[in-house]
Amino acid sequence: MSDDRTEPESAPGTAPGTAPDTGPDTPPDTPVGRRVVLGLIGVGAVGVLAGARVQDWLERVLGPLISKDGTGLAAFLPIGRFRIYTVTGSLPSKPNREWRLRVDGMVDDPFTLTYRELLAMPVTRLTRDFQCVTGWRVSDVDWVGVRLSDLLERAGVQPGAKALRIHSFDGAYTESLTLGQARRPDVLAAYRLDGGDISDAHGGPVRLYVAPMYGYKSLKWLDRIEVTDEVHPGYWENLGYDVDAWVGRSNGRSDDAV
Amino acid sequence: MPSEVVTDVTDETGTLDTEAPLLRFDGIERAVHWSTASLFILLMLTGAALYAGPISVLVGNRETVRTVHVWCGLLLPVPLLIGVVTRRGRRLRADLRRLNRWTPGERRWFRRRTRAGVELGKFNPGQKLNAACVAGVGLVMLATGSIMHWFDAFPVDWRTGATFAHDWFALGLWVLVIGHVMFAIRDGDALEAMMVNGRVPAAWARRKAPRWYREVRGEPHGAEQGAPATQVRDSEA
């Protein structure tokens, strides 16, 4: 309302001939446009500050409805959904029966594993939020897989080894973990996601799941684990992301993990 | 006064073509409109590729798509800002003022859908609301997009909130843009004005924007047909 002083110029005596078409609409008028803009900025600010909580709530309320949606359109709603990242031109794809995992480098017994052999190893199940460094988050994702520590133990890591270099069969995506990070109990070679096989889009048939770190560390389309004597920064790290990607404590932050 | 206009419209139908068209958008305004529109199209396409799984999978190359999206987003306000500060952006500035301000009649027109007796200006309340919403949503997209891109400076919860807001506002923006395009297609004369030479038939102005028509025609003489015409041609060369 205090803006009402802005109406005037068009009033009676505006010099004719100066600007035929530039006079504002006749008063009394209100700057509704500005109010709409400011209102939307307010809504946006609330969205930034409260969005994380609102989204969790929406996922809980709408999640069951969305899973029953028959049209497939609900998948486009911004509620608890993965964004599909592929760094190459086409979607990498490999049938389960052709998939192999190679574990080599500084190990005593390098080996190659088939999909069925992987499934025969001890199973670990984790339900955690999946957090992308840019912000998107999917709550309570259910992962099933084999601990990386079990795979490393089977290969027999040599003294002097410090890190892993992990390769994707898309030919471009690589990731790194220190041996300490890789041996955590919440770091998996995962083969099931939310109760189903892992699709091509989600990095199947087998992908990494590094629970305490941002999503980019959870390399997709797992192909090879190479034990190395130093950390080789991976694909996203070479684009400027932190090598140690603890959720909440990296990429510029030092606060506690969420 | 409104009754005068009504009779005017009904009487006119026969003699429409004799009256010279009115300049609705000059070269600067059309340049700003189309460069902004191009950036919008790129933003919407790359945004869809970043957001929707099936499209992401088809397009791939996330890093490139993201770079294009971020640059288009940062450039989006630039054409309008240049248009506003440039000396020849006089009409653009005047139109922004018009879009901002609503007369009591227009607010009634919008709220109660009572359209009788309301004399509309250059833009109708729907257009004004659309413009304000696009501006507001655009600013929110710029801010939230910046948080997502320069995430280092913000807590994780803010990034998640920014992504959340960016996604929902983007859906709203699609609705606004599609609505804008549909209304434009439905009004051939107005669409032609924006696409071709900035002019609308006088009959169109009398029917759809009578207050603007009076504003323009009420001037001493010919300012509309004379100088601006050459100006338009210049800017298109």
Write the layout of secondary structure elements.
The complex is a heterodimer of chains A (258) and B (237).
Chain A: H1 32-67, E1 100-105, E2 111-114, H2 115-119, E3 124-131, E4 137-147, H3 148-155, E5 163-168, E6 174-178, H4 179-182, E7 187-193, E8 196-197, E9 207-210, E10 222-228, H5 235-238
Parallel strand pairs in A: 1-10
Antiparallel strand pairs in A: 1-2, 3-4, 4-7, 5-6, 5-10, 7-8, 7-9
Chain B: H1 2-12, E1 22-23, H2 27-51, H3 53-59, H4 62-75, H5 77-85, H6 90-100, H7 104-111, H8 125-149, H9 156-186, H10 188-195, E2 199-200, H11 202-208, H12 210-217, H13 227-236
Antiparallel strand pairs in B: 1-2
Helix pairs in contact in B: 2-3, 2-4, 2-5, 8-9, 11-12
Explain how this protein is built.
The complex is a heterodimer of chains A (258) and B (237). In chain A, 22% of the residues lie in helices and 23% in strands. Chain A contains five helices and ten strands, in the order H-E-E-H-E-E-H-E-E-H-E-E-E-E-H. Chain A has helices at 32-67, 115-119, 148-155, 179-182, 235-238; strands at residues 100-105, 111-114, 124-131, 137-147, 163-168, 174-178, 187-193, 196-197, 207-210, 222-228. Chain A has a five-stranded mixed beta sheet with strand order 2-1-10-5-6. In chain A, strands 3, 4, 7, 8 and 9 form a five-stranded antiparallel beta sheet that branches. Chain A is elongated, with a radius of gyration of 26 Å. The two termini of chain A are 43 Å apart. Residues 1-23 of chain A have low confidence and may be disordered. With 237 residues, chain B is an all-alpha fold. Chain B has a single domain, classed as Fumarate Reductase Cytochrome B subunit (Up-down Bundle). Chain B has 13 helices and two strands, in the order H-E-H-H-H-H-H-H-H-H-H-E-H-H-H. A two-stranded antiparallel sheet of chain B has the order 1-2. Chains A and B meet through helix 1 of A and helix 3, helix 6, helix 7, helix 8 and helix 9 of B.
